[in-house]
Amino acid sequence: MQYGLKAANYPLIPEDFDRRQLPPALTQHRKKIFGLTILPERLSEIRNERRPNSKYAALDNCRHEVAEAEAMMRREGIRWLSTTTKSIEEIATTILQKSGPSASNTDHQ
Prior knowledge:
With 109 residues, the protein is mainly alpha-helical. It is built from 5 helices and 2 strands; from the N terminus they run H-H-E-H-H-E-H. It has helices at residues 14-19, 24-27, 40-50, 59-76, 88-98; strands at residues 34-37, 79-82. The protein has a two-stranded parallel ribbon with strand order 1-2. The chain is globular and about 40 Å long. The model is unreliable at 102-109 (pLDDT under 50).
């Protein structure tokens, strides 16, 4: 916890993409949600360290999941940014800046 804020991670899963809507557990928090995305190539690299040569880590699967997550965030009006080249400190600073009272729900990086 920093700046008096609490954050939770809610990873989207294939069933969320099949429903094509925000998971029910998140709908009541819609205004507080800030989505994170990553380049599929980087996601595949990370997943290959955990589960080498799996469908989970396959580049095609990562491309599909990233595209679906970004499409869901656009449909739902969720603010989001790419974390591919950002440190955790940069991610936190960006979210704090974009979540202020004048932040728009359509700001993407």
